[in-house]
Design brief:
Blueprint: H1 4-27, H2 31-41, H3 55-83
Helix pairs in contact: 1-3
């Protein structure tokens, strides 16, 4: 049986952590470089400009994605437990 809380914490940490990395990339000026590379590698031509770093937006992004990740992990574990009942 999967622990719903642990699954939520892991998924929340992964999604929130990924957005911490993105925030650091934007803060250091590397966000645009990475985004341009990703678009180039996928053969996409979409004009996107990464804006200046904003602490409030960064914290909001990290918190919202971490909470979303927690919910996703919790629901995923709940579904797993329902499907794999004995």
């Amino acid at each position: 049986m999967a622990d719903k809380n642990k699954a939520g914490l892991v998924a929340g940490a992964l999604l929130g952590g990924w957005h911490v990395v993105w925030s650091v990339l934007v803060l250091t000026g590397m966000g645009q470089v990475i985004y341009d590379f990703v678009l180039w590698a996928h053969m996409l031509h979409v004009p996107v400009v990464v804006g200046p770093f904003d602490v409030g937006a960064s914290v909001t992004l990290i918190v919202v994605t971490a909470v979303f990740g927690y919910v996703l992990g919790y629901v995923g574990a709940w579904v797993w437990n329902r499907v794999h009942r004995s």
